[in-house]
Give the backbone structure.
Amino acid sequence: MPRPMPLSPSLPTDGLIVVAKRDCPTCTLIEPVYRELAGGGLPVSVYSQDDPGFPSNIKGVRDDRSLEASFHLDVEIVPTLIRMEGGKEAGRRIGWHRGEWEELAGVRGLGKGLPAQQPGCGSKSVEPGVREQLLARFGGLLKARQIEVSPMEDPEEVCFERGWTDGLPVVPPTDERVVRMLSGTRRDPQEVVGLIPPNLAECTVEKVAINAVMAGCKPEYMPVVLGVLEAALLPNFAMHGLLCTLYFSGPVVIINGPVAKRIGMNCGLNALGQGNRANAAIGRTLQLIIRNVGGGIPGGIDRAALGNPGKYTFCFAEDESDPEWEPLSVWRGVPRGKSAVTLFHGDGVTAFVDHGARTPEELVRSMATSLVAVGHVKLAQWSNAILVLTPEHYRVFREAGWDRRRITDALHDATTRPGRDLIKGAQGLHEGIDPKFADQMVPKFWRDHGLMIVRAGGEAGMFSGIIGGWSAGRFHDDVQPVTKEIVE
Amino acid sequence: MSNAFTMRDPTGEAASVQRERLKPPPSLDGLTIGLLDIGKTRSDEFLDSVDRLLTERGHTVRRYAKPTNAKPAPIAVVQNIAAECDIVVEALAD
């Protein structure tokens, strides 16, 4: 994160600056030195971090209990001696070292009888948690409107009342928390990430961080959160339409690559369920940004007839533990070894059960019976789907030497059906495809992006998951899953 | 560090502009009527009927279409309607 560091106008532009604290044995040991520094003719300003009565032999000690000067001077160790010339720092010495101090101050004979050198202590401005507080207070990083909460109010209730939540409590976005979240990215807090639908409101990195705090993210999730948001704004993801739809769907987030492991995402047991902070908070952040920044609110422009529980959050990682398995991101064009996000317009999860198939051919035929039911058995190339392949089902394919491409191709073949069975009116059901396809073989899914396989899940269970997709999947060229590399 | 508890606003900090609706024209005589097909299933059937009824009454009708109902109308479509029509019927059907 870039750190704007304008020198506070109250800091001296010329002369010597000492920053010290009483609590530091070195600072107290060299108390006589502070007075002797004035012998060189330069003005001397002593800032005390913890006690304006220290050093007692100096008049006009500057009270820096707020740590504002220490922050602006970027002091990490006390004592620190700084020489300023014309508003610029001409030199700095940390800890006590007679020779170095004499050279910088232009004074001889400092601290007679004292040890020649002694290391200092940590500055109060870099104690745990303090730096974020100082950045929030003096760093000028945050530009979002401040909302004051009276001591009589519960901040979490204020968040509810202001309509900032998805129905569950959020973490109140205090300055300290937002600044800490921003430490997770090198991007400028005021950089605009994109325009968030439906209101096409500008969303800065700072606004992303605020919503990430509320959703429960840790700072190290920020690169992933930013990547997810950027992917959601790609034109062919059609986030605006996905939000408005009557259909069930919401964004489903799948993370590939080293970042998933690094931030502790779950791709194993209960991968699609609750209990993992990164999975839960990253998916939730996207939804909160669309709600809060974009103004997309259920009952407002979100017109879903039913929605689905994944609209709180739906985010997981792919299991890449088998080096022979081609990760989803690689299949979608991202170089191997890079982290990436894939976004899918998904509904809830449908269980697929098969305890009996022992050959890949049979398992594919069996899976096809469930996959053709996505949306409606008689619809085709109407919605996309994800097959979440669990380890026990994957084993059947792996032992037979089948890779991602072979499984995908076989599933496409097995879900291609005679049009006469699917046309409107066939099987006594009006729902169905255009009668012009009666004499053709009709694939259930678009061959290129209509069916994506993701490996995930716990070791035991002859089940796989089917995540059905949005009805707008029928617009092959206009609405597609998207994959984007995550830049860390 | 600070006594006041403050939070940062997570919203777009935008305020809506309240605009008056245009009054319906007293008569359709001499006006050009745009029909926008938003791309929903069977929108075309519905608009064909509206088109026929208006044309039978001697009105000038122009047809427009969004490529897909899944995305907002392209700016060019919106601008063309604004430039070429006096009123527009935006239809939804399923």
DSSP finds two helices and four strands in chain B. Residues 32-91 of chain B form one domain. The radius of gyration of chain B is 20 Å. The mean pLDDT of chain B is 89.
